[in-house]
Amino acid sequence: MPLFKKRPDGKPGEWYYCLKHGTVEEGPECRAADRLGPYGTREEASHAMETARERNEEWRQDPRWNDDVDGAGGGTAKGE
Fold first, then answer.
1. DSSP 19-52
2. Per-block average pLDDT, block size 10, for the chain (80 residues)?
């Protein structure tokens, strides 16, 4: 049995959105793999999923990352 329990990474004053629980949390509560963040405010963290959807759509439309010739999505890697 370990002497000390490892705490999740993070600091009080940093806000995260927990994917596992669907909640906003401050500092180290849930493990890092289950969180989005850190965000500067509780409000920013509460919009984490919306922000992620917007960024994903921007990246899908970015020609530097889109190697799909017909624009239909789901393309293959270059050179295949």
1. TTTTEEEESSSS-GGGEEEEESSHHHHHTHHHHH
2. 60 90 91 93 97 94 75 50
